[in-house]
Fold Arylsulfatase A-like enzyme.
Amino acid sequence: MSAAPKSIFYLILGMGLILFQSCKPEAEEVTKPNIVLILTDDQGWGDLGINGNSQVNTPNIDQLAKAGVQFSRFYVDPVCSPTRAEILTGRYHPRTGVYSTSEGGERLDLDEKTIAEIFQSNGYNTAGYGKWHNGSQPPYHPNNRGFEEYYGFTSGHWGNYFSPMLERNGEVTKGKGFIIDDLTDNALSFIENHKNDPFFVYLAYNTPHSPMQVPDIWWDKYKDATIDSNHRYGDKETINKTRAAYALTENIDWNVGRLVDKLDSLKLLENTIVIYLSDNGPNGWRWNEGLKGIKGSTDEGGVRSPFILYWKDHLKPQIISQIASAIDILPSLVDLAGINNPFDKPNDGLSLKPLLTESKPEWPERYVYSHWRGRVSVRNQTYILDNENQLFDLSTDPGQLNPIAEPSEAILSELTQAKNDWIKTVLSELNPEREEVFPVGFEDSKYTLLPARDGLPHGGIKRSSIHPNSSYFTNWTSTTDSVTWDTDILTSGKYKATVYYTCKASAIGSTLVLKQGSNELKTLIKEAHDSDYVAAEYDRSPRDESYEKDYLPQEMGIIQLDKGHHPLSMKASEIKGSEFIELRLLVLERVN
């Protein structure tokens, strides 16, 4: 073959190879699955139709469960913050620094890598909507933990569900309509805007947590409903609270339906993993399939949660009976998404992928632990050793009605040893005596919010509720009274201070003083704002938490804050009339 024909031959061969490469089927390309993680608040195992409750209407969630994977033995923690910490990190909550639900004890340690950070670093657009409850001030704020978009509230509970004060990416804003509908609207917009790129959406609803505020459209379906109290704790049941919980659950179900419909209309269902669960047991004595205990308990009723995982055309419908836990969510999603080696620290959870995808998976015997306020229980596939070291056979006695009178020494010693080892190696990492200092002026954030929740009242000032999360300060009558925040100023500089308050007309002309050491800022109260309780007419059952008011913002001006551990204090240098302001929030905005 001559030189010219050879060159033509290789040219044709090369063009053929290029053509072959360009014609490879798209199926060989790896597409990252989207993820939508839906977490409800204080919704028990028994609050869904799919789990046997005939009194609540949840067709969309039930259908998601029937078409997806259901876990019949899935466990979370007894209360909100610990469960959220375990979902975010895949690690037992004592390792993450979470020991309480307010006043700093809910904060996730800064050296913990979150699920959002992991997925963001792997090309995902990340968003969180709703209740955060793992730290309020930057760098604990969700925008500093991997969420590029955040809309909701960072405290443990909220006092108003109707167009409430919320925040968007650290800036105070006003919600639009009923909070669950509003959060879902924002999630739908984010999905629409990122439909062509992989996304991770954490949709953390704050119902049916109290206060039991329900829109008329949902309450009307349940306000006269007959509630069957013929269950284990029927004598303790508050009927209207149960009705409200079911009405709020039906509202959640409607919003889950909207979410699935949006994914379907965008042709994203086949490439989106949808997860649904709750953060702890029910917040009241209602039907829960006879399980022992409610929210706050380390028994089955306090920690057994619905857990549904749906991925159209990828996971076959099935019910999985192996025990699993909140710590398993992160490693499972990382495995399903094909992300390699994302963890900086040892992971406590297991990837559930073998259970989800294999017909005969090899699965280890394991323990699941529950802890709250020093109470610890441990489970294996058959037994539970409760916090009083009573042994129950859950295969024959799922309601923990009768402790085993003469337990096998081998089984008892095995679970006792597992429990003691966990207390020594995991629970011992928790330091509930640590000093809680609230950071101000994190370099990557413009705003720091210091709510009344994180402040301390002095003198005659009182908190509006024993539950601090959504409270405000009241009964401020003397110039010797004060409020302080124990703050660590991370960046020296000038900050614009804004207070959110209410007051009577008689307080006009009073003087409010903000101080940090020798730095001082004064402002006159110029406008009365004697607000009534907001949306109180939607309470369907008496609340324990504080009511919300319509708080008025007033810019105080600019104050210099010096770097270091310096308490911030507020006092009144002059009070007109018999009462000063009621204080809900101080916002500090870096201006240089």
In short: Confidence is low (pLDDT under 50) at residues 1-28. The chain has three domains: 30-362, 371-429, 438-590. The first strand starts at residue 34 and ends at 40. Residues 371-429 form one domain.
